Amino acid sequence: xxxxxxxxxxxxxxxxxxxxxxxxxxxxxxxxxxxxxxxxxxxxxxxxxxxxxxxxxxxxxxxxxxxxxxxxxxxxxxxxxxxxxxxxxxxxxxxxxxxxxxxxxxxxxxxxxxxxxxxxxxxxxxxxxxxxxxxxxxxxxxxxxxxxxxxxxxxxxxxxxxxxxxxxxxxxxxxxxxxxxxxxxxxxxxxxxxxxxxxxxxxxxxxxxxxxxxxxxxxxxxxxxxxxxxxxxxxxxxxxxxxxxxxxxxxxxxxxxxxxxxxx
Length: 264
Known about the structure:
Blueprint: E1 12-14, E2 17-19, E3 22-33, E4 36-47, E5 51-55, H1 62-69, E6 77-82, E7 85-86, H2 91-100, E8 101-104, H3 116-127, H4 132-145, H5 161-173, E9 179-183, H6 191-206, E10 210-214, H7 218-224, E11 227-232, E12 235-240, H8 242-247, H9 252-261
Parallel strand pairs: 5-10, 5-11, 8-9, 9-10
Antiparallel strand pairs: 1-2, 3-4, 3-6, 6-7, 11-12
């Protein structure tokens, strides 16, 4: 296993460029939903510029892990730090965290009554206090980048699922985040729309965006990830570079999981 997947500080080279110092650190994190123990003593470090893909069976805690990083879910014990700072509890600091750590959801979460352009400009103006004209220019650049600039005047309902998800990515990018979290970003899409979203994500990875991606898309993990994290029953069971994980998983649980999802 190469040094680029360790959690030691320092700069190393991964498949999509340079990786820097730790940016997101989960230390002995536990989370319960009532009697259900959904995260069990989770330790994970994501470095600046690193793409970490989190996989595992349904109910393994993947989405909960993702949602704790920008405090959409609170934790019961342990610590989470972003860029050296613990997660804030509420107020302006929490809003700033959610700008710094953007999230792209399974269900797009666009404002249905606002145009595509308005969806991408609103956060810039309200949260970042960017002038409307500047926000509009940034929005159009990002919509061009994700391939939907020609849809700027439409409402979300007039777009395909793949187009809506690309707008959601542009909206997150408009906040100039330090990292992006993706929670099953393609699972609500028709099969023919999946690749158009994954291609945008691969481009972000190549550009050096720090990303934590919960997904069932193993092809994306192979193409874009520096590291694959395999979870089961609320625990990080195994983590490795994609090639190592997919060709020589160490744990019996990972071997069993891969045997069921990989077709040859």
